[in-house]
Fold:
Amino acid sequence: MKTKQPLLTDAFGRAHQYLRISLTERCNLRCSYCMPLEGVQLAPKSHLMTHEEIFTIAKTFVENGVTKIRLTGGEPLIRKDFDRILNQLATLPVALSLTTNGVNVDQYIPLLKKVGMTSINISLDTLKAQRFKEITHRDYFDRVYKNMQLLLEAGLKVKVNVVLMQGVNDDEILDFIRLTEKLPYTIRFIEFMPFDGNRWHLEKMVASEKIMETITSHYGEDRVVKLKDAPNDTSKNHQIKGAAGRFALITTVTNPFCDSCNRIRLTANGHIKNCLFSQTENDLLSLLRSGKSIEPIIRKAVLGKLAVRGGMDDLEKLKNPDLHRNNRSMITIGG
Ligand code: SAM
Ligand code: SF4
Structure:
């Protein structure tokens, strides 16, 4: 007898154990690489998942093999019922994590600890207050930097997501690495990726190879140690010998890691995106609201996942702006 394929295993044999849920399309920052200057068309509130719907959908995924859920957005902490959502999800047998811009995270530290989170991802692209204002169009550098320290003091691991852009903040590579010498942050340099409306050009992206060159030519190759990466890890982890923290490279553009991808995404309006770059999505929320089983649409989304970067399997396709327009802006995907 033919055995049934597990719901979350795709046509390439990749089992999806990691669900990233976007809680909102809104944000209290306006990062130029994420939020288009002209803004985005927001879904009406009635089209967004309620906390009950988030729980119901998450439960189905967990019952089918998801072991990790990350909450993201937009900015997840501006959602007024964030504590309710988190407390509900904490009743599921799943590891919870969070990606936030850090502006409001201090208010949630006791809750994050209570639900057993051990590590938080904070996005911070510069260590200069004026530059922070230019990149995010808001004046919150001191607040975010202080909140990162508060998280460390509370015993949480802090991973800092840094998107480097040529001529914007690429002169800060060594400043970020110096930070790891004294403090136990993991600095994650993410290659600038193309999405609808973010004015991406290959020339604006700082390739991981160049970042490594900058670091090794300053410290010397023997002081830069490659660390072991966890299975399905998207980041290549390193450390300066003797440093308190680490650094990592996320090479989505120059060297995609799709063959070991175990991620699936749920947008704030309840659509499944089987890849960050997928040009199609499946409306799970409408099906849920109609009272039908959501498993068939999850299966359809998983089986529709393409081998590499939503079909943009080479750099030429990635450079084609027509293909980005078929995708959403990052702020409405949930990174
Ligand atoms: N607001 C939260 C934050 O900033 O951490 C969560 C959502 S944000 C979309 C998630 C992550 O996506 C952030 O670390 C951000 O730096 C990253 N991101 C957004 N646009 C990106 C792009 N074009 N290329 C690479 N990373 C991007
Ligand atoms: Fe907001 Fe995060 Fe996007 Fe910046 S990266 S605009 S903080 S969602």
